[in-house]
Amino acid sequence: MIEVKDVYYTYPNGFTALRGVNLTIRKGECVAIMGENGAGKTTLVKHFNGLLKPTRGTVIVDGVETKDASVAQLSRKVGLVFQNPDHQFFSETVEEEVAFALRNFGFPEDEVERRVEKVLKRMGLLGYRKSSPFSLSGGEKKRLAIASIVVFEPEYLVLDEPTIGQDYIQKVEIRRVIDSYLETGRTVVIVTHDLEFVVDLRPRVVLMSRGRIIADGKAEEILSDSKLMDDASLLLPQMTELAYKLGNPKIPRTILDENDMLEVVKPLLKHRGGWRS
Amino acid sequence: MAKAIEVRDLSYRYERSERDVLLDVNLEVEKGEFVLLTGASGCGKTTLCRCFNGLIPHFYGGDLRGEVCVAGLSVKDTPIHKLALKVGFVFQNPDSQLFSLTVERDVAFGLENLGIDRDEMRLRVDWALKTVGMEKYRYAAPYELSGGQRQRVAIAAVLAMRPEIIVLDEPTAYLDPKTALKIFQLLDGLNKRMGLTVVLVEHRLDLVSRYASRLIIMNKGRIILDGKPSTLFHDELEEYGINVPRLVRFFRKLEEIGYEFGELPLTTDEAAEIIRRIMA
After folding, report:
1. Which stretches of chain A are DSSP H helices?
2. Pairing of strands B165-169, B87-90
3. Rounded CA gap, B215 and A104, in Å?
C-alpha cells in the first residue's frame, strides 16, 4: 500500500507543486492520475519511490516512511518509468540497459538472460538488442524505458505518460503489458493525458489541479463529469461528449466507449438496414 | 502557379544507414491545404517533413533521389536559410526552438538574421505575437511560460518570417488535451483566414481530423492512402498503427449493422445530428 498523507512539496526555486495531497493506493489497483500540465502529477509520483521527499507530510510505502528509506531500497519495490526516457538511460546497448537493474539486484545470469530476451520480444525491441538506447526513435525509447523497469517486476509499476508518441499498435501493446501486470496481483499507476487510453483501461481515476486532488473515483464517474473535467483542463471522452450532445434521457452520460454506446443506441434506431446518409 | 509542395519519385536513405526510409514518394500539395500526415512510428513521416525545409539533404546529408520542390524552389539547390522564408518548421518540443531571454527576442531572432529593418521587424513581431494570442507576454522569459504558451511562441517565431507553408512535427505531444485543441484551432485559423498551407504530423486524430482538408497515411516509407479524413476513415487504419477516433469507430459499428455513411462524422455535433435523424 502507498499512503500519501497531507503532502506538500516546494521545489528549491520556490514553486509549490503539491498543496496538501492525501491518497491511498492499495495493492492490485490500477490508478490513472490525470490533470492539466503543471497540476503536480509527476511531482506526486516521484514521491512514491523516494526521488522526492515531502516538504511537509508523509509518504509510506508498505509500512516504511520514504524519508527513512534510500531510493535504492524503494526502487526495487516501486519502479518508475519517466516521461522523458533519455533521463533514464546510461548503458551502451539496449540489452545492457534492460539487464542493468536485474544484475544490480543480484539475479543469477541465466535468469537475467531469460528475462531480458522475454521483455525485449514483448516490447518489439529484440532487433535492437545491440543498438545504443540513444539511437532509438522516441516511441522505441519509451518502450525500452518501460521494458527496463517491468523486467524486474517491482510491486508497484508507475508509468509517467506511457503513450506519448506511440501509435495505435504500440498503445495496444502497452495496455497488454499493464493488464498482464495487474493479473499477477501487482499495482499499476499511470500519469496520463490520454483520455481514450484511460477509457480502454478503466482504472480508478484521480484528478489533480494546481497541486491538489480534486476528484477520485471510478473512470465512468469522473470522466463523464463535465464540470470536474473542465476544472482539470481535460476534455470529455468522445462518446461521453456525444451522449451530452444527444441529450436523450435513454442515453446515459457515463458511456465511455463505442460498444456501450452501440448497445444503448441500437434499440432507439429506426429503419435498420439499407439506410444511406 | 507553383504548388506549395511537389515531390517526385523521392527515395531517401540516411548516412550510414542500410535501407531507404522513404521509397518512391510522390505528392502534390496545393496552396491553402491543411494536410494531416500520420502513420506508425518509423513510417517515414518525420523524414519526409525534413525534406520540406531542407534539413534533408543540407543538414542530414544521406542519399536523396528524386525531386522535392517547395513554393517553386528545388530543395536540393536552395540553401536552408532561403527555404526558411517559404517554409516554417515547428518541432515537438518548443525548447529546441526557444533560447532567448524574452519572448520578443525569440520571435525576432529569425528576422534579425535576415537583416530586416527595425520598423518592419517591430510590425512583424507585434503581428505574430497577436496572431498566436501571446502579445501580453512579449517581455516574459520563455522558460516562465507553460508548454502550450511556449509552443505558441515557437509558432509566432515561424509566422514572423511570413512563410507560405508551415510544417509541424507532433507539436502537441507533451500538451494536455485542452491546450492541444487550442493549438489546432490556432492552426485552423491561420489556414482559413490567411491561406497558410499547413502540413501537420500528428497521432491525435480525434482532436485534429475535423480541421484537415486532407489526410495522408504513410507506411514503411511509402504513402499508402491519401484523401478526405471523413471518407478515408472507412478503411481499417488500425493495422497501420493509426489511432482512429472513437467517434469513427462507433459509426463503423453502425455500418456493420446496416447503415451506410458516405462521410463519417469528425465532430460530436455532426455525429449527434446524424444519430437524431436515424432515431425513431
Report:
1. 41-45, 71-77, 94-104, 109-122, 138-150, 168-183, 195-201, 219-223, 226-231, 238-246, 258-265
2. parallel
3. 48
Q: Do B278 and A270 touch (CB under 8 A)?
A: yes
Q: Which residues contact residue B165 at a Cβ distance below 8 angstroms, ignoring those fewer than 6 apart? A: B4, B5, B52, B70, B71, B86, B87, B88, B196, B197, B198, B199
Task: Name the band, by pLDDT with cuts 50, 70 and 90, for residue A212.
Answer: very high
B12-21 long-range contacts, CB within 8 A, separation 24+? B12/B47, B12/B51, B12/B56, B12/B62, B12/B63, B12/B64, B12/B65, B13/B62, B13/B63, B14/B47, B14/B60, B14/B61, B14/B62, B15/B60, B15/B61, B15/B62, B15/B63, B17/B62, B20/B221, B21/B47, B21/B221
B36 vs chain A: nearest CA distance in angstroms? 15
Can you give the length of chain A in residues?
277
Q: Do A258 and B253 touch (CB under 8 A)?
A: yes
- Within 8 A by CB and 6+ apart from B61, the residues are B14, B15
* CB atoms inside a 10 Å sphere around CB B82: 11
Residue A277's pLDDT band (cuts 50, 70, 90): low
Q: Which residue has the cell 513554393?
A: B71
Does the CB of A124 have a partner CB in chain B at under 8 Å? no
Contacts of B253 (CB under 8 A, 6+ apart): A258, A259, A262
How far off is chain A from B94, nearest CA to CA, in Å?
15
pLDDT grade, residue A156 (50/70/90)?
Answer: very high
Distance from the Cα of A45 to chain B's closest Cα (Å) equals: 18
Report ipTM for this prediction: 0.88
